[in-house]
Design goal:
The protein contains 4 helices and 2 strands, in the order αααββα. It has 133 residues and is mainly α.
């Protein structure tokens, strides 16, 4: 078994890698020039910073204004709902027999003591005894 593995080792190791015959020439690189535009970069960063804060401030003010409008609209809605409930209660009370009686008394109406009918042929008022009821 070791005899079989040795030829594969020989195949792998049979090709030696070629060593580079010439080394690359190394040259000195001069130090970079001092960075120009430092103040321009700082000014750009400050402008972006101020612009971001300005945008946040503007959006915050818009949200506060919208929240205030929503609050005022909800207050108006609550007042309208309370008024609607009051009117509904008044309508319900006016529709009850006690409410109808009270309103009739305010108008000066009295309960009918006798019931009379109108004869459509003659146009005269007749009593129930005359009609046969």
């Amino acid at each position: 078994m070791s005899a079989m593995s040795s030829p594969s080792r020989n195949l792998r190791g049979a090709r030696p890698e070629a060593a580079p015959s010439v080394l690359p020439r190394l040259e000195l690189v001069p130090t970079p020039a001092p960075a120009r535009g430092f103040f321009g970069t700082v000014a750009t960063c400050v402008a972006l910073f101020v612009g971001a804060f300005g945008a946040v401030f503007f959006l915050n003010n818009q949200m506060v204004a919208t929240a205030w409008e929503i609050q005022q609209t909800q207050k108006a809605l609550n007042v309208a709902s309370a008024r609607e409930a009051t009117l509904e209660d008044q309508v319900v009370y006016a529709s009850t027999p006690e409410g109808l009686l009270e309103k009739a008394e305010e108008l000066g109406l009295t309960p009918a003591t006798t019931v009379l009918h109108v004869d459509l042929k003659t146009g005269k008022i007749i009593s129930p005894e005359q009609t046969g009821d």
